[in-house]
């Protein structure tokens, strides 16, 4: 059972601060890997931190669990938090997300789908994202493109 699920036993639906990580995986064609999630639209691979993990460890573990891929050479893009990252889930659970966003240009392994979490994975050009790309993912990708255009370190 995940850490936050244990907490929910004690706090019910009250707001929690939940840290997590996502990864913008970029291929050699400068396309970004998106995950068609079973709980919504298209998003970035990632998830919530477990006890004792760093943001980087969370990113690596979540990408492996969700895609089957091993990521190397993570570059931290930004950490997003605050009032704009408040979420109220359909079941009434409230949370404030603290999300570390990374980029990775080096992956290995075979892309596999965990059907409990994903319908599909596809690479997209940043200016051709699906209409139902989740707001957070769209924001992170937009910020990545802006930073990449300003700073060659993200290329």
UniProtKB/TrEMBL annotation:
Q: What is this protein called?
A: 8-oxo-dGTP pyrophosphatase MutT (NUDIX family)
User: Per the UniProt entry, what species is this protein from, by scientific name?
Assistant: Fictibacillus halophilus
PANTHER family tied to this protein: 8-OXO-DGTP DIPHOSPHATASE-RELATED, GDP-MANNOSE MANNOSYL HYDROLASE
Specify the domain of life of the species encoding this protein: Bacteria
UniProt cross-references to InterPro entries, sorted A to Z = Nudix_hydrolase, NUDIX_hydrolase-like_dom_sf, NUDIX_hydrolase_CS, NUDIX_hydrolase_dom
- UniProt xrefs under Pfam families: NUDIX
Family assignment?
Belongs to the Nudix hydrolase family.
PROSITE patterns per UniProt: NUDIX (PS51462), NUDIX_BOX (PS00893)
Keyword Hydrolase annotated: yes
The alphabetized UniProt keywords are: Hydrolase
Q: Does ATP-binding appear among the keywords?
A: no
Q: Where in this chain does the record put each Nudix hydrolase domain?
A: 15-146
What does this protein need as cofactor? Mg(2+)
């Amino acid at each position: 059972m995940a850490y936050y699920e244990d907490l929910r036993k004690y706090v019910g639906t009250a707001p929690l601060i939940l840290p997590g990580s996502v990864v913008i995986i970029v291929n050699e064609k400068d396309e970004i890997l998106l995950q068609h999630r079973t709980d919504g639209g298209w998003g970035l691979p990632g998830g919530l931190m477990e006890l004792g993990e760093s943001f980087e460890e969370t990113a690596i573990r979540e990408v492996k669990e969700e895609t089957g891929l091993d990521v190397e050479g993570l570059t931290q893009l930004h950490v997003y938090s605050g009032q704009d990252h408040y979420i109220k889930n359909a079941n009434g659970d409230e949370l404030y997300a603290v999300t570390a966003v990374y980029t990775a240009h080096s992956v290995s392994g075979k892309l596999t789908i965990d059907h409990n979490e994903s319908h599909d994975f596809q690479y997209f050009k940043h200016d051709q994202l699906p209409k139902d790309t989740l707001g957070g993912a769209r924001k992170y990708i937009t910020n990545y493109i802006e930073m990449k255009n300003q700073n060659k370190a993200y290329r």
